[in-house]
Amino acid sequence: MELKDKLAAQKIYLFLAALFITSLVVSNLIFQKFFYWYPLDVEIFGTKLFEISVGILPYPITFLITDLISEIYGKKRANQVVVAGIFASLFSLLIVYVSNIVPATSWSPVDDTMFSTVFGSTAIAVFASMMAYLLAQFVDIQIYHFWKRLTKGRHLWLRNNFSTWLSQFVDTMTILLLLCSFDIIAWERFSGLLVAGFLFKVLVAAFDTPFLYLGVYLFRKRFNLKINEEIELL
């Protein structure tokens, strides 16, 4: 691969990493709002089937990006993005913590009480999310490359969905266990939220498969990559 192509690949990798980190950090900050997505009026364990946190909305993007990076740039680069995401989460946690400590002025549109209500549980949320995220992302990357080796780079839909399904279950279960343990969410909602969150993520994983195929196709066409061939960055 020529130098100009490697520079272009490096630039795209940085944009993908930025999108990944942004999605991760935002999901940690907005998780306390829950909404009901109602294609079906069904209850499971006392919880609406798709009664879920808005933090779930950007989170599946992270798995799509790591799968794309795994496919095009390899396992090492995907793991690097995961580590960078942990650092970004810790840094955002520090900013929120300091912002919560400093007193608001008397004329501040957002007073201390309001700020603490919205962001007061962020420390616990980020910790819970990071533990769940760390487990889930590494599970996703490991399983993805297991299926990639097994299928010799073929059947992209298989490794995309199988890796995401298992990793998303690990993520959903871990974060709910931690949030319930810290009394942020009542235990009676655990089972319902686990099923609702996991099913929603499974649907999203199935929905994003064509986008992964499109991304891989564009990369292979742009950089003349063969099946199972990866880009080695500078």
User: Major sheet, described briefly?
Assistant: 2 strands, antiparallel
The coarse silhouette is globular
Average per-residue pLDDT, rounded, comes to 82
The fraction of residues assigned to DSSP E strands is: under 5%
Strand-pairing-aware structural class: mainly alpha
Would you report the number of β strands? 4
Provide a brief overview of the structure.
Helices cover 71% and strands 4% of the residues.
Q: Which terms summarize this structure?
A:
single chain, 234 residues, two-stranded antiparallel sheet, two-stranded antiparallel ribbon
Explain what the structure shows.
The chain has 234 residues and is mostly helical. Helices cover 71% and strands 4% of the residues. It has seven helices and four strands; from the N terminus they run αββββαααααα. The strands form two sheets. A two-stranded antiparallel ribbon has the order 1-4. Strands 2-3 form a two-stranded antiparallel ribbon. Strand 2 and strand 3 (47-48) form a beta hairpin. The termini are close together. The model has no long low-confidence stretch (mean pLDDT 82).
